[in-house]
Amino acid sequence: MSATVVVGTGPVSLADVVAVARHGAGVRLSDGALAALRTGRAVVDELAADTRPHYGISTGFGALATLSIPAERRKDLQRSLVRSHAASTGPEVEREVVRALMLLRLSTLATGHTGVRPETAQAFAALLDAGLTPVVREHGSLGCSGDLAPLAHCALALMGEGEVRDATGALVHDLPVHELTEKEGLALINGTDGMLGMLALALHDLEQLLDTADVAAAMSVESLLGTDAVFAADLQGLRPHPGQATSAANLRAALHGSGIMASHQTPECTRVQDAYSLRCAPQVHGAARDTVAHARAVAERELAAAIDNPVITDDGRVESNGNFHGAPVGYVLDFLAIAVADVASMSERRTDRFLDVARSNGLPPFLAHDPGVDSGLMIAQYTAAGLVSELKRLAVPASVDSIPSSAMQEDHVSMGWHAARKLRRAIDGLTRVLGIEILTAARAQDLRAPLQPSPVTGAVRNLLREAGVPGPGPDTYLSPDLETAADLVRDGAVAAQLGAHR
């Protein structure tokens, strides 16, 4: 992607985060940002020449904040801070996460409230713009005083040290060296940028996945010979949650024009109430949508924040504060994991109904070609059940599990980084569970022939067939088909059918 995000013309948007993190957009600082950086730096330079101690400028950090550092040792102070805090361990974090946190730290630097020099912010922007990504490892952040360890790895790269990969994934050697001065090491590592970056990416993914969940539910209602009468706008309006209204409208649109639905909407049909996993899809999917909307509001407020400690105020004061605490972000990350688990749980229940002859309204056992010889999709449901079980564990909140650190100076921490990491795993799990439901419902559609599905649900079935997922027939190697279905969910192809056939 050749687009460039200009940082410093206002808060970066959630779309900016996705563009830079996932699609490789470049970045540059605005002229206004450079002016703000010069103003903020002038305050730091004045305090650095003062004989009194000022936290982060002429003192140690955390529990060592009472120690005064002489002027000739302050570059050593910043260098040592970054080196010692770059202490993550475990598997490498995804490139898109690191790029997101770098963009968000740059956004805060660009406000001028951190006191870094313009040339330091420009050097940091140059790393990001060049596609150079520091290696950050899974474990190390407690989500208070910000995501210290992950951000320290990025600051280390700015100093010309540590492990860095280029856009191809190759390790880079002989990085340019940028020397940090008073306040700069601290300013580069003190923010909620890691957890916030993962929240921004999660919101983007969940908005697409919830559209997909509506399509999947429609395919299941259709192929299980359910009723769409319960999705009527006037019935849904009796409970005026906005997310519920959106999901119900999606279900109506996805089922419009279905020959399968029309086939049993006759006076002889006695179906008036479906199981909850069919009938209540708008209520559950809608509640998840409203949770996403709340999380988006929190994320947008956080994107507008300037988080550092100490921070330079508009009137030139340098003040300690607690704005780095990750609780606001951690809470919504945990909240989203609950919604993800519940949407997946309902999806798995719909999948299971297809496979049970007592509940599938005339479909063969396990949708098998020759039941007994063939097992059909029996084990695909096992896979969905295993994923849902894991999602329930991932829904246990991280943000209530504080562990004190820094000799009890940092005696309550947010664990927001951990909440974000488990949400990323949960989103992958939901993607796979929805893929299994769609694959199952598509096979059931074929078994309802010659009755025809709706334009939307039929298009989804066709996507699967065009991608090589076979219809009903003797058992084949199933794992690649599950991966293909998950890929179609992940890349937005399934959700896109809603708009393409309205």
Automatic annotation (TrEMBL):
It catalyses: L-histidine = trans-urocanate + NH4(+). InterPro entries: Aromatic_Lyase (IPR001106), Fumarase/histidase_N (IPR024083), HutH (IPR005921), L-Aspartase-like (IPR008948), Phe/His_NH3-lyase_AS (IPR022313). GO terms for molecular function: histidine ammonia-lyase activity. It is found in: Cytoplasm. Its EC number is 4.3.1.3. It holds the Pfam family Lyase_aromatic. GO terms for cellular component: cytoplasm. Keywords: Histidine metabolism, Lyase. Pathway: Amino-acid degradation; L-histidine degradation into L-glutamate; N-formimidoyl-L-glutamate from L-histidine: step 1/3. GO terms for biological process: L-histidine catabolic process to glutamate and formamide; L-histidine catabolic process to glutamate and formate. NCBIfam families: hutH, PRK09367.1. Belongs to the PAL/histidase family. This is Histidine ammonia-lyase. It comes from Cellulomonas terrae.
